[in-house]
Amino acid sequence: MASIHRRFALVSEAEKLRQRRRLGLTPNRPLGIFVGDWPRRSQGSVGCLIAAWQKLCRLPNFHGDLLVLGSGPKLNCFQRQVAAAGLQHRIRLLGYQRNVAEWLAAADVLVAPTKYEACGRKVCTKLCAAGAGGGVCLCGGGRALFGRIATAAA
After folding, report:
1. Sheet with 109-112, side-by-side order of all strands
2. Binning pLDDT at 50, 70 and 90, where does residue 59 land?
3. Contact 112, 124 (CB under 8 A)
4. Using CA atoms, how far apart are residues 96 and 125, in angstroms rounded to an integer?
5. What is the CA radius of gyration of the chain?
6. Do residues 151 and 138 make contact, with C-beta atoms less than 8 angstroms apart?
7. Under DSSP, is residue 136 helix (H, G, I), strand (E, B) or coil?
């Protein structure tokens, strides 16, 4: 059984709304979040996440926003990509943040687009133990954990 530090435990809907207001976020929109630093090797995962979210934003019934916390050598490139698509209000690249627990408390779902890191499996384990929602790409550890489920559901 995975243990979760109380700073990162699930929060009530009232606390989530309070955090969103405090952080200047829209209170009534679904909110996904990615947290991590992206060295050169894992920037492709962040780029894929941004591209996928851009596609989702084109769907008429998709109203979710994405926060990307962390930084890497391509931060400016990703910011230009989002701006060129006109999605700065839907995809916010916030750079390094010290108060990660507060941002996580405001989110509905943690998105973990890991291709190379073993972290994907750890993230999913922690989320499942906490009863939270999450998203993971079906490659690497994600395929090992969810591949058969996703294939059966498709």
Report:
1. 91-95, 65-69, 31-35, 109-112, 133-136
2. very high
3. yes
4. 25
5. 15
6. no
7. strand
